[in-house]
Write a structure and sequence with these properties.
Strand content: 5-15%
Shape: globular
Distance between the termini: 63 Å
Largest sheet: 7 strands, mixed
Strand order of the largest sheet: 4-12-11-10-9-5-6
Helix content: 25-40%
Structural class: alpha/beta
Amino acid sequence: MAESWVDAAERIGVDLHLDAAGPGGRRAALVRALREAVRGGRLPPGTRLPPYRSLAADLGVARNTVADAYAELVAEGWLTARQGSGTRVAMGVSTAPSAQGARARDARSAGRRTPAEVPPRARGPLHDLRQGTPDASSFPRSAWLASYRRALQEAPHEVFGPGDPAGRRELREALAEYLARARGVRTEPGRIVICSGFAHALRLLFAPGGAVLRGPLAVEGYGLGFHRELLASAGVRTVPLPLDADGARVERLARERAVLLTPAHQFPTGGPLHANRRTAVIDWARARDALVLEDDYDGEFRYDRKPVGAVQGLDPERVIHLGSVSKSLSPAVRLGWMVLPERYVGPVLAAKGEREAWASVLDQLSLADLIRSGAYDRHVRRMRQRYRGRRDRLVEALAARAPHVGVTGIAAGLHAVLRLPSGTERSVVEAAAREGIALDGLDAFRHPDGDTAAQDGLVVGYATPAEHAYGAALEALCRILPPGPVPAPPPGRDEAAASAG
């Protein structure tokens, strides 16, 4: 017997009254009725909606009409749909009527779309192209769960008591082997300290009143403002170094006590630090009894060039190598590491303290197992191929839709820089916000005291969207790019290698 609406409503526990009539056809009327029911509060966040065929039978419309209406509201952020969980009203949807809602209805009746159609922050931006975040849907859940189970089953009882502030020995041993093999790092487990990520490492190294490191600190002319703010709050003055096609101009280093670099892939402009400058910065550190802080940003992800080893391998006593799994796995896994010169291990552990400032011991053991089992390498290689495909699609879309926009920084990493005509960056970023596209302008990363020439551009993270959403994100990005030619800057060495390959 065919399932009736009464049967379906009884099973899912919801009756739904809708006045799906009006101009624009049945699908448009149904979309309008559902949107008004959510906005008016009759369908609060989390409410499960009837299956397609049940609602179709009740309203006397085709099943595809309901399916298309649901899909449109999912895309707009009003509803969510997951396999096995059905279709529900999105959490965080604003249900209060407003003048903005009235304006949106007026705009729709006039046949034009406005950003007000999308509930504010119902599910974040429509298209997330922010840098620094991997594809969250690609987290290796099965492999992580298997490693977690093994780690939990095999963990000795002392794991669940007070531990070593340096971190679990199992993880430090696994990292020493992995970093030597994959990044050319020369170290041993006793010189690795586990932390909760790169920012945590900076806090430990420059703790106010601490005895580890003090300023002034040389930094690259472009970088994360968050890190500069963190250092400033610790009383550390940062001195910007200009950038060119070969990376940071390290010949400009003078009396600073240390320099913070992203040698594998300069953030955000792209490109590795040239070999001559790697040697030069080590010579400077030796001559000045100074330190190089190596942020191994995007070290795992390279596409069109040979692997670039860690600067730490040139002089382990002059370089502090800093890494994390925020890009390779997820920023939700709060695990990072410091590979330290021997003389800094004690001061860093003293700054960390005996309790509290630890990463989860079970997560440490899980990551150790993930590395030892080979699952971490397999995941990185798989994501390297996926992100390369994402990058290629971005380059192809720009070539087809906006050939006048140059794209750089693409031989490695999870983002690209789109070079814009002078004076257009701000208007393009504002246009992106109006269209629900989350991305950053290049100027947001420029050191306020830097003498590197300001350049207009966008920093586009091509790793962030889920695979099914990436095509729509590229389409939206191309729509907001300005028209007109712009000369491409000379390629960096990694870009030239990419073109040659």
